[in-house]
Amino acid sequence: MSTCNEPHHADHDHQHGPNCGHTAIRHGDHVDYLHDGHLHHPHTDHVDEHRLEVSAKNPDRCTPDHNCGGHAPDHIHGPGCGHEPVPHGDHVDYLVNGHLHHPHDDHCDDHGPVELA
């Protein structure tokens, strides 16, 4: 095993890469893959667990007036909702039309765009 200090995803046999079937997201200077609610980064002999950082590009803010048209106004994000979960800061957002949605009270907050790879 490498000397990487990132958290690792144990027992991960799937090989992530172009055309592997998972959504690829540009994250800093590399590409991560959305896989079962995790953001995976293939790294030498293992898979790192990543999270998108809270930043100016991907803030953690309340945006009650956000209306992206990516789902019905009464849509509720959660397991099986049809949108991929994305670890972001200390919470989970959902990928909708190229940006992060965070369920909050009676609306979805816009936590910024992601760049699909």
Descriptive overview:
This protein has about 120 residues and is mainly β. It contains no helices and nine strands. The strands form two sheets. Strands 4-3-2-1-9 form a five-stranded antiparallel beta sheet, with no helix packed on it. A four-stranded antiparallel beta sheet has the order 5-6-7-8, with no helix packed on it. The mean pLDDT is about 85.
Briefly characterize the structure.
The protein is 0% helix and 40% strand. The chain is built from no helices and nine strands. The two termini are 28 Å apart.
Query: End-to-end distance, in Å?
Result: 28 Å
Report the helical percentage: under 10%
What class do helices, strands and sheet pairing give?
A: mainly beta
The SSE string, one letter per element, is EEEEEEEEE
Estimate the mean pLDDT confidence.
87
Beta-strand segment tally: 9
Report the portion of residues in β strands.
35-45%
Provide the low-confidence segments as ranges.
none
Strand order of the largest sheet: 4-3-2-1-9
Biggest sheet descriptor: 5 strands, antiparallel
What gyration radius follows from the Cα positions, in whole Å? 15 Å
User: Tally the helices: what do you get?
Assistant: 0
Shape verdict: globular
Region (Disordered): 1-58
Protein name: Threonine dehydratase
Biased composition (Basic and acidic residues): 1-16, 26-58
